[in-house]
Automatic annotation (TrEMBL):
Domain of life: Bacteria
Protein name: Pimeloyl-ACP methyl ester carboxylesterase
Span of the signal peptide: 1-20
PANTHER family in the record: HYDROLASE, PUTATIVE (AFU_ORTHOLOGUE AFUA_2G14860)-RELATED, MONOACYLGLYCEROL LIPASE
InterPro entries attached to this UniProt entry: AB_hydrolase_1 (IPR000073), AB_hydrolase_fold (IPR029058), AB_hydrolase_sf (IPR050266), Epox_hydrolase-like (IPR000639)
Lineage: Bacteria, Pseudomonadati, Bacteroidota, Sphingobacteriia, Sphingobacteriales
């Protein structure tokens, strides 16, 4: 009888663990993550592979002004975190298109050569298919690098460039030690929900709030998937893309109206863990980088936010949305 109770206790523990894992586990294409608006898919063929790019295409809710905005997410995110921005823009008459870039969110996790040039081309083709000739381009974090590349490649299609705490304001390869994609892959494999939370708390926000937990549940949830190694490999490939494809030397070539929105407490550095604390203190200082970048772009404006980190549209939504809509 004692043996039976021991076995039964073990069964309950294992069942509990499996149930918890099932609850916390997300597919690497976020099939079980509900986006705020219907998701469609744009087919792409590249490097002999048929892949698909997820996107939301949201109509204005009132007073349509005939204008469009496209939103480019950051590296650790997808279209799901743009909800309040979509609502604000559709409320003032904009059609809003929100892609998950290839390798992110609900889009294909393809083993390909990742390139900001290629991503910009795919987004331009998406706009062509949707009949959009000109658009406001808003890019956050890595999306800021992509938005900059898009505006450089397609200035005639860019009505205005809006950069929300973009990364790439420095050339990381000039001070971050080089590691191979394979080495970065091993680092990505060690990601857990707790390591994601620690990173977000320490790097993205000045003060952690419970409402930010959904970001952790998504980024951490995929780590429990049996397919997570594929996600990790793509994350490593896009890390290499950021490291090897700087835009910092080309800001002076932008020929479109540009506004930077900068949370001054942001200290984001791609590859930060590879630096000593003393080295970290020399870089990622957005209170300086924002102004330096704005000075490089002809006619650029900068709007700075005190007591705000890497994601103004989430940390200080009211202030950000007032500044954003005012800039349009």
């Amino acid at each position: 009888m004692k043996k039976f109770f021991i076995l039964f206790a073990i069964f309950l523990f294992v069942f509990g663990q499996l149930k918890a894992q099932k609850t916390d586990t997300l597919s690497i294409t976020l099939d079980n993550v509900k986006y705020p608006y219907p998701v469609k898919y744009f087919p792409i063929n590249t490097e002999g592979q048929d892949i698909k790019m997820a996107y939301m295409d949201v109509a204005p809710t009132s007073n349509a002004n005939g204008k469009t905005a496209i939103l480019f997410h950051g590296k650790n995110f997808g279209g799901y975190y743009w909800t309040n921005v979509i609502k604000a823009l559709t409320n003032i008459g904009y059609r809003v298109i929100v892609p998950d870039q290839i390798g992110f969110g609900k889009s294909s996790k393809a083993f390909i050569h990742y390139s900001f040039h290629q991503m910009a081309t795919w987004n331009k083709r998406l706009l062509d298919t949707l009949g959009v000739q000109k658009t406001v381009v808003l890019g956050h974090s890595m999306g800021g690098m992509l938005a900059t590349r898009f505006a450089l490649m397609y200035p005639e299609r860019t009505e205005k460039l809006l950069l929300e705490n973009p990364i790439g304001l420095e050339d990381y390869k000039t001070f971050i030690p080089y590691i191979t994609t394979a080495q970065q892959y091993q680092t990505e494999l060690k990601t857990t929900a707790e390591s994601v939370r620690k990173h977000y708390q320490g790097s993205y926000f000045t003060y952690w709030k419970p409402e930010y937990e959904y970001l952790v549940s998504i980024a951490g949830g995929v780590t429990n998937s049996a397919d997570y190694p594929r996600w990790a490999k793509v994350a490593a490939l896009t890390y290499t893309m950021i490291y090897e494809q700087p835009v910092v030397y080309e800001f002076q070539n932008l020929k479109v109206p540009t506004v930077l929105f900068i949370g001054k407490e942001d200290k984001t550095i791609v590859g930060k863990s590879l630096l000593t604390p003393d080295q970290q203190a020399l870089h990622g200082q957005y209170k300086f980088l924002g102004k330096q970048t704005a000075a490089k772009i002809i006619g650029a404006k900068i709007i700075e936010f005190d007591a705000c980190g890497h994601i103004p549209h989430i940390e200080i939504p009211t202030e950000f949305l007032v500044a954003l809509t005012g800039s349009l």
